[in-house]
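This follows on from our talk about sequence and fold. Can you supply me with one protein entry, sequence and fold together? Could you add the entry underneath, on a fresh line?
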Amino acid sequence: MCSLALLSCQKEPAQESEPLLEVNYNNVSGIWTLEMVGDSPLLDGTFLDIELTRSEKTFTITTNLDSFADIAHTLTGTYAITTTAAQGSIIEGMYDHDSGFWSRNYRIDLLSATRMVWSAVDNPEFVQTFSRKE
C-alpha cells in the first residue's frame, strides 16, 4: 500500500522536503502527467496527461496508452473529491461519453505543489504517481 511513510523513504531528497498540501479542488487543479504506475515508469513514447479544472470540476485526459499506433486521443468529463476521516480524500470521475464512470475511484495519498499520488480504493496496491506540468 502506498503511504506517506513509504513515500518518504524513497531517495528523492527534493521531494521529501516539499510541503504537503491539503487535498481540495484548488490544490489539485492544473495539468498532471502520469510518471509511474506502481514502481514502473511509463514506456518510452507513452503518456497520459490529465487536466483538472477547479471551477467547473471537469477533467480532460490526453493519452496514447490505449491507442493503436500511439495516436493520442482525448477524454473529457467531470470529477469529484470527497474527504472523510475513515477513507481520506477520494477522487472519482465520470466521462462525458458512453463509458460512464472511471473504472476505479482513487485515494489521493500525497499532494504537493509538484507531485500527486493516487491509489485505487478497491486495490491499494495499484498506485499512480503524477507530476505537475509547468
Notes: Residues 1-14 have pLDDT under 50 and may be disordered. DSSP finds three helices and nine strands in the chain.
